[in-house]
Design a protein that fits this description.
The complex is a heterodimer of chains A (151) and B (212). With 151 residues, chain A is α/β, with parallel strands linked by helices. Chain A contains 3 helices and 6 strands, in the order H-E-H-E-E-E-E-H-E. The chains are: A alpha/beta (151), B alpha/beta (212).
Chain lengths: 151, 212
């Protein structure tokens, strides 16, 4: 069985990036154009079949960062994937072809941050009403944005 | 890739002159020519009241009707958040609001009271308004808990209606986060007090001064 000690050189070999993070947590910061490739590699080669979560961080003028955590439950290690999209960029590759579980997480991420996931089968809002304007978890979103007639 | 919102599914119009249900509801809510039935009753009651000795009849009738109204307030079960758990506890056997004549009923069209228990989000507010509109007059509303009163801990959130009184008229506010069943019971007793002088003033009771 593949252990986390064996997984680190595999990532180094394939992507040329050293995985940071201690112990069973492998943090991989990747460029957004290799996002889906890393996902496929983590699932098929590293055996991370469990998709834990996907979210995003708003770094203001530095742009958005998409983060996802996938786990190998047998070997007990996790790959933490990060990708900085760059300033003003809202497009990212979808992980839906790799994990079915990424579907709703990406919809939520689109709902809250406005990130367009290319290749997502059904990208629309999941929590907020469909006529909502703006993306509330962005730092530029004012929480007192008027919403007639209720606010 | 273009992102499009799904087209809303409008239910088929029952009346041919209305384009959709929303339009009919708007007209129904505005009632341009007023409430004909209530106007007729008011004129009838005024006639009896002005008849010699007739005031005894109307006062007794009012007292009887108010007694009947306040002892069979049926709340529609409208639980939104954790306050609903306390509301259920109030309805259950330990606190037992059924001794006040309250039967929690799962249909707005048979209910007189709406206990808004929990956070009202902007997404939920149109549904809440629609359910309230479906209740027959006379109807009352109790705002239960901090969230329904003012938004509570989520007041500064992006999706929360800051008080359910921005959506529907509220008669009794029950504070607490969540209010224990005793608090809700006290609020319901206050509501019964309000109902008991519903017709004496001819209108709804004004907000009472602070009790303690």
């Amino acid at each position: 069985m593949l252990t986390q000690a064996q997984a680190r050189p595999l990532i180094q070999e394939r992507f040329g990036i050293a995985a940071t993070g201690e112990g069973p947590l492998l943090v991989v910061e990747i460029s957004p154009d290799r996002w889906q490739e890393l996902g496929r590699f983590a699932r098929e080669t590293l055996g991370c079949v469990y998709f834990s979560f996907l979210s995003a961080v708003d770094w203001k003028e530095q742009g958005l960062e998409v983060i996802a955590r996938v786990e190998n439950l047998d070997a007990n290690f996790a790959v933490f994937m990060k990708a900085k999209l760059g300033a003003g960029e809202t497009r990212c590759a979808s992980l839906c072809p790799v994990w079915r579980g990424a579907d709703w997480m990406e919809r939520e991420c689109y709902d809250m941050f406005g990130i367009r996931f290319d290749g997502h089968p059904d990208l629309r809002r999941i929590l907020l009403p469909h006529d909502w304007e703006g993306y509330p978890l962005l730092k530029s979103y004012a929480v007192d944005t008027p919403h007639p007639p209720y606010r | 890739m273009e992102i499009k919102a799904p087209t809303p599914q409008i239910p088929p119009a029952v009346w041919t002159e209305f384009k959709d249900l929303q339009e009919w509801e708007k007209l129904h809510k505005e009632r341009p020519e007023g409430d004909k039935h209530s106007a007729l009753f008011e004129r009838l009651e005024e006639g009896i009241f002005n008849f010699p000795g007739g005031f005894i009849v109307t006062t007794v009738a009012d007292a009887f009707l108010n007694w009947a109204r306040k002892s069979s307030v049926w709340p529609v079960t409208f639980g939104l958040a954790c306050c609903a758990i306390e509301m259920m506890a109030t309805f259950a056997s330990r606190f037992d609001v059924e001794r006040l004549g309250m039967v929690p009923f799962a249909s707005p069209r048979h209910s007189d009271l709406m206990i808004v228990s929990g956070t009202v989000t902007i997404k939920m507010a149109p549904m809440l308004e629609r359910i309230y509109d479906q209740m027959p007059d006379p109807k009352w509303a109790v705002s239960m808990g901090s969230c329904a009163n003012s938004g509570g801990p989520f007041r500064n959130g992006y999706h929360v209606v800051k008080g359910v009184d921005r959506v529907i008229p509220v008669d009794v506010y029950v504070p607490g986060c969540p209010p224990p069943p005793e608090s809700l019971l006290y609020g319901l007793l206050k509501l019964q007090d309000q109902i008991s002088h519903f017709r004496k003033t001819g209108e709804r009771a004004a907000p009472t001064e602070k009790t303690d």
